[in-house]
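Hey all, sorry for the wall of text incoming. These are the two entities for the joint prediction.
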Amino acid sequence: MPRIDHARLLDDLRTLRSFGACGTGVVRQAFSPIDLEARRWLAGRMREAGLAATIDGVGNVVGRSRNPGPALLVGSHSDTQPNGGWLDGAMGVIYAIELARAFRDDPATRDLALDAVAWQDEEGTYFSFLGSRSFCGDAPADALDRAASIDGKSLRAAMDEAGLSGTIPLRLEPGRHVAYLEAHIEQGGRLEAEGKRIGIVTDIVGIREFTVTFSGRQNHAGTTPMPIRRDAGAALIRFAGELDARFRGLAGPNSVWTVGRVQFFPGAPSIIPGRAEMIVQMRDPENARLERFGAALRALAEETNRAGPVAAAIAEPDDPSEPSAMDAGLQRHLEAAAEARAPGQWISMPSGAGHDAQIMARFLPSAMLFVPSIGGVSHDFSEDTAAADIALGCQVLADAAASILKAARGR
Amino acid sequence: MPRIDHARLLDDLRTLRSFGACGTGVVRQAFSPIDLEARRWLAGRMREAGLAATIDGVGNVVGRSRNPGPALLVGSHSDTQPNGGWLDGAMGVIYAIELARAFRDDPATRDLALDAVAWQDEEGTYFSFLGSRSFCGDAPADALDRAASIDGKSLRAAMDEAGLSGTIPLRLEPGRHVAYLEAHIEQGGRLEAEGKRIGIVTDIVGIREFTVTFSGRQNHAGTTPMPIRRDAGAALIRFAGELDARFRGLAGPNSVWTVGRVQFFPGAPSIIPGRAEMIVQMRDPENARLERFGAALRALAEETNRAGPVAAAIAEPDDPSEPSAMDAGLQRHLEAAAEARAPGQWISMPSGAGHDAQIMARFLPSAMLFVPSIGGVSHDFSEDTAAADIALGCQVLADAAASILKAARGR
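and here's what came out:
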């Protein structure tokens, strides 16, 4: 089996961290100068690992093995959130480069074809999953033309400034890859809570996000008696309480739902809100359950409208994210590798967060491996993972990658 | 009885409306150039009505009768909200000037002493009830030194710019006034709903306003299982729902309560709120009931803290507004006048909004008269009252003022 070099792995992780380091965190949003600098460094590390590396037209860093035969694509994304942690996608990118080196250094694997990738803009500074969607031909030009950052800068302008406009985006080469593997920090607290060190992802959850708008009548909070009020804020509070109760009745073991934003208008202490808005988001690995959540939400809105005196309107999601199952065969390889390196210290679990693997899974058999997040924290400067867990995750991924490629060769 | 001149009354109201007119509304915030221009015009109208008028050091326009004997102070405020209606306090100011003219024109009342006043900044652009509080010696210099508008301009700077710094604020002259009368639009929909044309105010409600802050743990909305969440937003929704139910059990016939502002932090769809805040305001004419509301709020916060996992903290009001009873004897004069001019078309009612009369009531016997607000709307460009109701209200106020002063003379 290929042997991971812990020191080399951690050195590279720490160097990548230095691009955009901000205290214990990292600020390296897609297409920022420091993101592009990091990508040039990553391309260099891929070349040193023996790969033929290029930065493509959307900023993906793709390192191709020079070996023939069925290839395995391994990677994650190197861009961060506005206030990102140092590991997030960066860890999976450095894992891929370390796998390429470990494969090269081991006579038993040096002839296998392992490609590494650092996807661009998974975090959606301009366009969520830009890199993997572009690579799979799932990023329509008109959608890219419309894409812009929250402060109004267009994706096209960002690509121009990055000097990428003349560069062609790379595409998935038909027949080259047998599978895609991605490692990532868990971003939640389940592994830590259960005392496990490896999570093998069964599914990436689907996401439904609805905006619910309540329309009543704005009025003076002192002079409007309770019986004649049409208080949009009070209606929202009743609605949200009842929705939570109904969702509890429908929930599966991996369901989560969140009201992350609530706004009352005009939002003054002495004014009865005439309008109120909330965003409710549901995530579940099962599409059928997401549909039931959506139906419950619509039913409650209809009841609210029938009962009055405040109207509830639902904005349906125009781009729902469907649940994505990870490949069962690939999971078996990951399970065997995990059991060999950390017996009894791994579990199968869904991913509650979105990942490039959910894009890739529509085009290639795909699988994911999680390592524990300390305190369950991510997308935050304090995000961290124990060094021993970082090393273990990389070794398990390397073992699984080798066994997947060997099995592919054997067919 | 003095006879109100409807045309003269409406002409003056329309002229005052032209200062700061904005479509059907008026923008004439305290100390703005247009507010000061309107005050100079008001002083002129008071002089034409035979009063000795001055603009004092805080911008109050005070018109003193030249007659000896016990005096009655009548008025309201001429400043508006940022998006104000044309009547609000302006109507009560023009009523006072029309009363002075009607008293002057009637041999039976021309020797009575009726003073008119247009208070400054009732709406609190810089300092709520500034004019009446200053007049009563209830505006401490250090509080005025700290006062500033929402965009950071200090009251002192506003007074300097208005050229008032060298002018002395007028004070209530001990022994001069027997009472204070204020007319105002209702600002609610009760008179309209009950088909009445005059409201005689029994009490001005007290106001308690609490900020309730929920502290949980910010986390990823996809990767944090429901059982281990500490969702401050979900805690707020449960709390607000339960609070509403408990308040319903405690409510009196004139209780109102409002959650006018809710904020979730950071307020993103994919982030479990780590902090959430709401402002809950209660109003009631009875202090004991306000105390019970406050106790219920504190008890619920304690229960929330005992139950966990989210902490609730209450910021107590540092300047609660106490309920203020209107003078019973003055109410009898208003009732008799209303019954004579509009038999069966008046009611006694509390005021749910604050008024300068609540300040004055601590220093002088005070009373208020309401006229209907069309659709219950106020603090809005669409605020309006039927012309016939405006005229009726002024006549009832004139009759009551005459009978109050005659009774005072007779003592």
